[in-house]
């Protein structure tokens, strides 16, 4: 058989020579590299999921609720309760992870001949999904301290007139939140230029010191807030993301969603998890204090740390961040090298995992100064 590689296939030009997204999944004792929640779901919730899924299994001969009405109603209730802004069923859309939400938004508002912009370093999937949907990607600037350079961002928006603007707050991989006034200014700039859809990616907002930007939806029909159950809810394996926006945006994304995209098993599992919101958010409080401890201790050891409103911390600086990543790995702890020169990212784990990480970097620092 002849050896056939990707580039021997008639793949689209923009996919040639590219690699798929993926953090290394290495088998080491302490894995703090993908911003997952370290706590398994509590046993009563596991029981409730089992009950709900058993019920759903009895009807698997039928297609699921295409509009996921019960689930969207419960998500709206959760957002209303925690977001200081009333959100209704018509404002909410759900899909298989917020990555699918983002894909549907780009299929609806981006696509061939259109562009999207993000302010980098930021979540690399915004650019990758843009490429996958044929949307041109524009990499906007940040300042050296990883805050959004507002003047430069406004200039880039005016110049490129993008169809979609991504603002990740708290930002991944840097951890810092984007101030409300900056988001408002970028929304205004985007409306003046096009007008375009502005997607505020709040994947980590439950870990933030500040509030959600949901109240900004009032009177702003081109604003979308995207959320996920992968981080704060500790349910990365579930694959459930959602958005809140004007009902017209929810109607628009239905033009591109696959029919019955959200399985009955997924809907049942997510509904069970939402019944246990209060318990799950208690873990968030614990992770927030562990995150703050990582910031304090890393600084005490002598590292620079970017302010974090997320469940992870960006620390540096390293002459060779990949070599530092390797040294930490050699000490049994896997962190993330996002390709941001001089910096690495560590996810807040359990207190014991964080102790192991701090021990590893303390040891590395000692070796370095010896
Ligand atoms: C992890 C993450 C997501 C979540 O993606 P899911 O598909 O919901 O797991 C979205 N946005 C950002 C910025 C993230 O870091």
From TrEMBL:
Q: According to its UniProt record, which reaction does this protein catalyse?
A: L-histidinol phosphate + 2-oxoglutarate = 3-(imidazol-4-yl)-2-oxopropyl phosphate + L-glutamate
Lineage summary? Bacteria, Bacillati, Actinomycetota, Actinomycetes, Kitasatosporales
Gene3D superfamilies (UniProt xref)? Aspartate Aminotransferase, domain 1, Type I PLP-dependent aspartate aminotransferase-like (Major domain)
Name of the protein in question:
Histidinol-phosphate aminotransferase
> Which pathway, per its entry?
Amino-acid biosynthesis; L-histidine biosynthesis; L-histidine from 5-phospho-alpha-D-ribose 1-diphosphate: step 7/9
Where is the Aminotransferase class I/classII large domain positioned along the sequence? 30-361
Organism of provenance: Streptomyces spongiae
What this protein needs as a cofactor is: pyridoxal 5'-phosphate
* Top-level taxon in the UniProt lineage: Bacteria
What family name appears in the similarity comment?
Answer: Belongs to the class-II pyridoxal-phosphate-dependent aminotransferase family. Histidinol-phosphate aminotransferase subfamily.
User: What does the record give as EC number?
Assistant: 2.6.1.9
Region annotation (Disordered) maps to 1-22
Pfam families according to UniProt:
Aminotran_1_2
| Family matches, as InterPro entries | Aminotrans_II_pyridoxalP_BS (IPR001917), Aminotransferase_I/II_large (IPR004839), HisP_aminotrans (IPR005861), PyrdxlP-dep_Trfase (IPR015424), PyrdxlP-dep_Trfase_major (IPR015421), PyrdxlP-dep_Trfase_small (IPR015422)
GO biological process annotations for this chain's record? L-histidine biosynthetic process
| Record has Amino-acid biosynthesis as a keyword | yes
User: Keywords assigned by UniProt?
Assistant: Amino-acid biosynthesis, Aminotransferase, Histidine biosynthesis, Pyridoxal phosphate, Transferase
């Amino acid at each position: 058989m002849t050896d056939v590689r990707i580039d021997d296939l008639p793949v689209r030009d923009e996919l040639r020579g590219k690699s798929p997204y993926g953090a290394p999944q290495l088998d080491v004792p302490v894995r703090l590299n993908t911003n997952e929640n370290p706590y398994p779901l509590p046993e009563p919730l596991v029981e409730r999921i089992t009950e709900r899924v058993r019920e759903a299994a009895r009807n698997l001969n039928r297609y699921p609720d295409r509009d996921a009405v019960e689930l969207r109603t419960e998500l709206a209730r959760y957002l209303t309760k925690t977001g200081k802004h009333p959100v209704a069923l018509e404002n909410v859309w759900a899909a298989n992870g917020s990555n699918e939400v983002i894909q549907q938004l780009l299929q609806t508002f981006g696509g061939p001949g259109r562009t999207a912009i993000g302010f980098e370093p930021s979540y690399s999937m915004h650019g990758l999904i843009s490429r996958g949907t044929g949307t041109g990607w524009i990499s906007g600037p940040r300042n050296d301290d990883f805050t959004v350079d507002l003047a430069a961002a406004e200039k880039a928006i005016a110049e490129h007139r993008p169809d979609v603007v991504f603002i990740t707050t708290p930002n991944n991989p840097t951890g810092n939140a984007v101030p409300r006034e900056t988001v408002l200014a970028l929304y205004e700039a985007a409306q003046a230029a096009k007008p375009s859809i502005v997607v505020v990616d709040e994947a980590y907002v439950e870990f933030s010191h500040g509030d959600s930007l949901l109240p900004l939806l009032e009177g702003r029909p081109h604003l979308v807030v995207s959320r996920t159950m992968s981080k704060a809810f500790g349910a990365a394996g579930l694959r459930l993301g959602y958005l809140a926006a004007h009902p017209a945006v929810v109607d628009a994304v239905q033009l591109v969603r696959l029919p019955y995209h959200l399985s009955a098993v997924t809907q049942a599992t997510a509904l069970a998890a939402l019944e246990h919101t209060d318990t799950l958010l208690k873990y968030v409080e614990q992770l927030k204090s562990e995150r703050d401890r990582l910031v304090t201790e890393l600084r005490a050891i002598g590292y620079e740390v970017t302010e974090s409103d997320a469940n992870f911390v960006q620390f540096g600086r390293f002459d060779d961040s990949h070599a530092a990543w390797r040294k930490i790995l050699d000490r049994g702890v896997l962190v993330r090298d996002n390709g941001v020169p001089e910096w690495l990212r560590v996810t807040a784990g359990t207190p014991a995992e964080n102790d192991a990480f701090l021990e590893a970097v303390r040891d590395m620092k000692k070796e370095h100064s010896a």
